[in-house]
Design a protein that fits this description.
The complex is a heterodimer of chains A (214) and B (474). Chain A is of the alpha/beta class and 214 residues long. In chain A, 31% of the residues lie in helices and 15% in strands. Chain A folds into two domains: 6-172, Alpha-Beta Barrel (Aconitase, domain 4); 184-214. In chain A, strand 2 (77-81), helix 3 (94-102) and strand 3 (106-109) form a beta-alpha-beta unit. Classes of the chains: A alpha/beta (214), B alpha/beta (474).
């Protein structure tokens, strides 16, 4: 997994609560058996005027110029500023894959849906929870200032604004460590393989009906 | 010492190890697999040179991408016209063969939506931990199993380690006391719950459903309730084991028999929350107050009783909520204040992991029997949840009732719930749907979804607009 230490970049304000995973990446793009290439279809139904298909030539599709992602001032955004319950709906990991593939490195929102939140960490994407009032203030600052950037320091757990204000955030220690070092969950878990085998044996003895015939 | 909730009990019995920071390894008994969220996980396993931990814990079927017309299905994989979908379904078959995983392939008579066939086959048992790369895995909580959706990285993690890395959730109790009015179903209960606590109300919790109205539901009804707990933000929903649960499981192909059954039953009967268990949050509803529910917007929390009106955003004081309502109404082509029963429908979809079981089809058939679909309804389809549900419905003559009334009778799959296959709702069209999500574009680009119960969808098909099924008097 890609490491996350300090990321600085343009902030894209997506001013909408309950952004669901169908909004982030529509279902027709989930037919792919790959893990990459979803960025060009991020927010597809709002970003383009027509209906996209996996084989569409996206460079030829009409853009929805009023959608925030298409505005010149937000090109090359690296930080997504969002509202409550971001990423609700399905478990599709294609949602964080699409955000990551587009170039986002972090999300800032007052709250997230559980599965989406969890999926982000598995992909080197940092979802930061900040209280609603601060998020609202950041929205105002982003909209008021062209080229507005935030700098996110995971080790220090701070977001630094252009004026130099440092906003602290909390993050789970285990997840922080994995992101900082780019650790792979499966590798970590397999270090406990003997514990898993031991558990499995006693569980099989106690509840054999959960195990198939051998 | 305070007692334990049902969630506490299943969690404790599956705890492999807990780290100092509270991150735990939880053993997974059953891993359900479908074609959409698994290919990258199998590829990851292969790339890392890792082995599958335990083949017999896995149970696979294709459901999201497959066609539902009989003509297409009869052609097997070749019947999947979309080449990208075809590759995905074939990839599942190939992966299951390579790793020795049990799969009910597309045209197996037992194939169906993974959340319908898991319980049907006895692959879902009480007290199990169950995961699947699908948020509606919560469905299986109806049988007293701790079940929730996971992402593809976690699918790979479970394939490689048989465990999930997790922190324990909080406990919420949703108690629905009293008796439902005639015609009110499990779908109305869960939509009313989502309307009350909101689409993020259950975030961070495992929700146990209890109370007289829940206890009186069949297992099919309980599955409908647990299925949609994710629409309230909770990953898992649970219902305590009782005689209804045991009666449902006994005799299922993968359920234990004889002496093992007796031992299992004794263990399963303890799968209830203790009387003195502590919940972090308690929500109560009066069943008698629940009317047939209809969603008007683009989030499942945007729901009102059928006899109400579309809410007016101008009356909403919170700015974020107000703008959400305005965006939803614009997308839905509705104005605040419009009576729900005046919403005209172009399409009716009866199916999905929420409402495609035999009881759902019976309820819908009762409403349409001897009647005809309204002229303004261009498309009305009934998609059974599994091959076995389809066979049962046909044995009861339900297919004939549907087709005589002008509804199409299809082959099992996810179909127009998420419209990954050819079953898509047209742009600007209003659909009465028994599925679980009314998000923008969910049932098709520009499609307008109204979530309802099977009986309400059937009545809407006949009348061409929503009606209060309590007024039908049958």
């Amino acid at each position: 997994m890609r490491k996350f230490s300090v990321e600085t970049g343009v902030v894209l304000p997506l001013d909408r609560a309950n952004v669901d995973t169908d909004f982030i990446i529509p279902k027709q793009f989930l037919k792919s058996i790959k893990r990459s290439g979803f960025g060009v279809n991020l927010f597809d139904e709002h970003r383009y005027m027509d209906r996209g298909e996996p084989d569409s030539d996206n460079s030829q599709r009409p853009l929805n110029k009023s959608f925030v992602l298409n505005q010149a001032r937000y090109q090359d955004a690296r930080v997504l500023l969002a509202r409550e319950n971001f990423g609700c709906g399905s478990s599709r990991e294609h949602a964080p894959w699409a955000l990551d593939d587009y170039g986002f490195r972090a999300i800032i929102a007052p709250s997230y849906a559980d599965i989406f939140f969890n999926n982000c960490f598995k992909n080197g994407l940092l979802p930061i929870v900040i209280n609603k009032e601060i998020v609202s203030r950041l929205f105002e600052e982003v909209v008021a200032t062209e080229g507005y950037q935030l700098s996110i320091d995971l080790a220090q757990q701070t977001i630094t604004t252009p004026s130099g204000e440092a906003i602290p955030f909390t993050v789970d220690d285990f997840r922080k460590n994995c992101l900082l070092k780019g650790l792979d969950d499966i590798g970590i878990t397999l270090q406990d393989a003997d514990l898993i085998k031991g558990f499995e044996q006693q569980w099989r003895d106690q509840s054999p009906w959960y195990f198939g015939a051998e | 010492m305070t007692g334990k909730t049902l969630y506490d009990k299943i969690w404790d019995s599956h705890l492999v190890t807990q780290r100092a920071d509270g991150t735990s390894l939880i053993y997974i008994d059953r891993h359900l697999i479908h074609e959409v969220t698994s290919p990258q996980a199998f590829a990851g396993l292969r790339e890392a040179g890792r082995n599958l931990w335990r083949a017999d814990a896995n149970f696979a079927t294709p459901d999201h991408n497959i066609p539902t017309t009989t003509e297409e299905r009869l052609q097997g994989l070749e019947g999947i016209k979309d080449p990208v979908s075809k590759i995905q379904v074939k990839t599942l078959d190939d992966n299951c063969r390579e790793f020795g995983i049990f799969e009910l392939e597309m045209n197996d008579p037992r194939q169906g939506i993974v959340h319908v066939i898991g319980p049907e086959q006895g692959a879902t048992l009480p007290g199990m931990t169950i995961v699947c790369g699908d948020s509606h895995t919560a469905t299986h909580g109806a049988l007293g199993a701790l079940a929730h959706g996971i992402g593809t990285s976690e699918v790979e993690h479970v394939l490689a380690t048989q465990c999930l890395m997790q922190k324990k959730m909080k406990n919420m109790l949703v108690q629905v006391d009293g008796e439902l009015q005639p015609g009110i179903t499990a779908k109305d209960i869960v939509l009313a719950i989502i309307g009350k606590i909101g689409t993020a109300g259950g975030t961070g919790y495992t929700v146990e459903f209890a109370g007289e109205a829940i206890r009186s539901l069949s297992i099919e009804g309980r599955m409908t309730v647990c299925n949609m707990v994710i629409e309230a933000g909770a990953r898992a929903g649970l219902i305590a084991v009782d005689q209804t649960t045991l009666d449902y499981i006994k005799g299922r192909p993968l359920a234990p028999v004889d002496e093992l059954w007796d031992r299992a039953e004794a263990q399963w009967r303890r799968l209830v929350s203790d009387d003195d268990a502590r919940f972090d949050s308690v929500v109560k509803l009066d069943a008698a107050q629940i009317a047939p529910q209809v969603t008007w917007g683009t989030s499942p929390e945007m729901v009102v009783p059928v006899n109400a009106r579309v809410p007016d955003p101008e009356l909403e004081p919170d700015a974020t909520r107000r703008s959400g309502m305005e965006q939803a109404l614009e997308y839905m082509g509705l104005d605040g204040g419009k009576p729900i029963i005046n919403i005209k429908l172009d399409c009716v979809f009866i199916g999905s992991c929420t409402n495609s079981r035999i009881e759902d089809l019976r309820a819908a058939a009762r409403i349409v029997e001897g009647k005809s679909v309204a002229k303004n309804v261009e498309l009305a389809i009934v998609v059974p949840g599994s091959g076995l549900v389809k066979a049962q419905a046909e044995a009861e003559g339900l297919d004939k009732i549907f087709t005589a009334a002008g509804l199409e009778w299809r082959e099992p799959g996810c179909s127009m719930c998420l419209a990954m296959n050819a079953d898509q709702l047209g742009e600007g069209k209003h659909c009465a749907s028994t599925s679980n999500r009314n998000f923008e574009g969910r049932q098709g680009f520009g499609g307008r979804t109204h979530l309802v119960s099977p009986a309400m969808a059937a009545a809407a098909a006949i009348h061409g607009h929503f009606v209060d099924i309590r007024d039908l008097g049958s």
